[in-house]
Amino acid sequence: MAVTCFLRYVIDPYKLDDFEAYGRMWIRLVGKFGGDHHGYFMPSEGTNNVALAMFTFPSFAAYERYRERARDDAECQEALALAERTRCIVSWERSFFRPVFSAEGR
Questions:
Q1: Quick check: pTM over 0.85?
Q2: Which of 12, 19, 72, 89 has the lowest tally of Cβ within 10 angstroms?
């Protein structure tokens, strides 16, 4: 059963460009490890310090394999270093959901 990871970030509103660069890196990296990234969602109107992201793996086991492989991956370490260096992320929350797709979809 597929699992979707939902991330809610509290970000520094003065470092949106840094966070967007971080997000663009992870979109590709999730795909590299077999996930389907649904994008990062940046502040637009309203709250200026919250961003969201969602990505799906075919199973929770596949997600766990991604986490294991990502720990030793140089590109993943580079993305994490960018966030640490720029301090664009203040905090984050991670939740998991079971997606429901249309009958015509997946």
A1: yes
A2: 72
